[in-house]
Specification:
The protein has two domains: 126 residues, no CATH class; 71 residues, no CATH class. It is built from four helices and eleven strands; from the N terminus they run E-E-E-E-H-H-H-E-E-E-H-E-E-E-E. The strands form three sheets. It has a six-stranded antiparallel beta sheet. The chain has a three-stranded antiparallel beta sheet with strand order 7-9-10. A two-stranded antiparallel ribbon has the order 8-11. Helix 2 crosses helix 3.
Length: 250
């Protein structure tokens, strides 16, 4: 088992069930293990989103950064004021260190943006948003290295929407839902998106792929917003209208 989160005196223990993606974040479905040694109890599941720059494969490729390896690890530690037992001159790649720190900063910002949205819209968790079970900082500071926020890996532990059991992206709506359900699902997605504006949140990356449609036990569907890494608070006097890569005009 992997220790996934510590919340004050409470520890959440999880076991990885299924690795989903290693794109901009590393995502997986996990079993939440009981802390009372009741091995006969079937574990509940959750969705774990790891904002870890080392394994953000798609983002690394987009930025022209190669896979994480020992040489970049040494350079990264040294750039943050750390020390290693044996460091060869071949590892003193300052360009690599700058790329890694930039990438770590991007993932740290993405986590902060997501956590802020879940906090702002906490009344809508479990309905229009997944329930946030825990937001965690993993301290991965190497032995002998100075403590630095860029040694931390951020984790969101979320409600598992059971997408593999009949759920789908709104982008693929025509392939999964009957035609007479389309309008209602699109309307639900529009209403969900309006919640962001009502809470002063701008999201230039909101698109059909960031909505999931999950079957309900009564035969209907639940529309859920996901992925808030590009969100930010709207400035005073700023329009709710945004364009990709920019912001709305006041």
């Amino acid at each position: 088992p992997h220790k996934a989160a510590a919340l004050s005196s409470r520890t959440i223990r999880v076991r990885i069930r299924d690795l989903k993606t290693r794109s901009c974040c590393c995502t997986m479905v996990v079993d939440i293990l009981s802390n009372n040694n009741n091995n006969n109890r079937k574990p509940s599941t959750a969705f774990l989103k790891l904002h870890d720059w080392r394994y953000a494969d798609t983002l690394r490729q987009h930025m022209g950064i190669g896979p994480w390896c020992p040489s970049t690890e040494f350079a990264y530690i040294r750039s943050l004021g750390g020390h290693t037992r044996t460091v060869l001159s071949i590892y003193d790649d300052q360009d690599a260190a700058q790329r890694e720190t930039s990438l770590a900063g991007i993932l740290g910002d993405s986590f902060a943006h997501e956590a802020a949205v879940y906090d702002s819209l906490r009344a809508h968790q479990g309905a229009t948003l997944p329930r946030l079970l825990a937001a965690v900082d993993f301290d991965l500071t190497p032995p002998g290295a100075d403590n630095h926020e860029l040694f931390y890996v951020r984790v969101l532990l979320l409600e598992n929407l059971m997408v593999d059991d009949g759920g789908f992206s709104l982008r693929t709506l025509p392939h999964h839902a009957p035609r007479d359900a389309w309008q209602g699902l699109v309307d639900a997605a529009v209403e969900a998106g309006r919640l962001l504006g009502e809470h002063g949140v701008l999201d230039p990356d909101r698109h059909a792929g960031n909505f999931l449609v999950v079957p309900r036990t009564d035969g209907g569907f639940r529309v859920v917003m996901i992925d808030f890494g590009h969100c930010r608070s709207r400035r005073e006097g700023e329009s709710e209208r945004v364009v990709a890569g920019g912001s709305g005009a006041a």
